[in-house]
Amino acid sequence: MLNASNTVREDPAMADGSAFSAPLAGIDAGRFELHRGASHVAIRGAADMDDLFRARFEGPVPEVTTEGGTVRIRHRNLSPADWARLALLTRHQSADIALNASIPWHIELRGGVSRLSASFEGLRVTSLEVRGGASHVEVELGRPDAIVPVRVAGGASHVTIWRPAGVPVRATVRGGISRFALDDQRFGSIGGESRLVAGDWQSAAAGYDVEVRGGASHLSIRSR
Asked: Among 85, 130, 217, 219, which one is least packed by beta carbons within 10 Å?
């Protein structure tokens, strides 16, 4: 579904309206929001394109809008029975999304996003939020040039966050978490409020400041 009031463009080569883009048009910072019901999603940074973003979908086509540098992708709010019927009709649902790597991005994933793989090694991520029941999410972050906040909340589960070797991390857990790992530190559960660090956090000028809230489970923060 295309919002005609903004600058999103449908790819004329895709007759089913399943591919979108928008011009960069002098935008110097981006915000990407993925909402509600998205499944089998791949997101990456792309240094070799002139657009703000490009997205291609298989299966149910979401609403895609832009406002300034903000890109919002949201699926319709369907019942479990409706999603089951769509799955039978389309047999597969997927999304491939590229974000322009020449500008920094705030990334927000929420509202039932599942089976998502994000490769942000070549993208400058200024903040990352994973919330609202997101599950089976794997994010690969690049080497930051500042302290970057990362928020995981709202019952997110089976989330793995990768970072380059040597990048320090502080993880603050509030409200309890089950099955948590920070590099070689592994916990069956953590209750109340706890802080853990990896690397030389105290003197770090750049790193990832992770806050976990709201009963998340199966969360791993690893380096490679």
From this structure: 85
This prediction has a pTM of: 0.86
CB 212 within 8 A of CB 173: yes
Counting Cα atoms < 13 Å in the Cβ hemisphere of 24 gives 17
H or E element in which residue 210 lies: strand 207-213
Helix, strand, or coil (residue 176): coil
- Give the pLDDT confidence of 131-177 residue by residue, as tens digits: 878 889 999 999 999 999 999 987 889 999 999 999 999 999 988 78
β-strand partners of 127: 106
Q: Report which secondary-structure segment, H or E, holds 19.
A: strand 19-23
3-state helix, strand, coil in the chain (%, to 5): 5, 55, 40
Q: Which has the closest alpha carbon to 176: 153, 208, 159?
A: 153
* Predicted confidence (pLDDT) per residue in 18-70, tens digit: 899 999 988 999 999 998 767 889 999 999 899 999 999 988 788 999 999 99
Q: Give the whole-angstrom CA distance, residue 188 versus residue 180.
A: 7
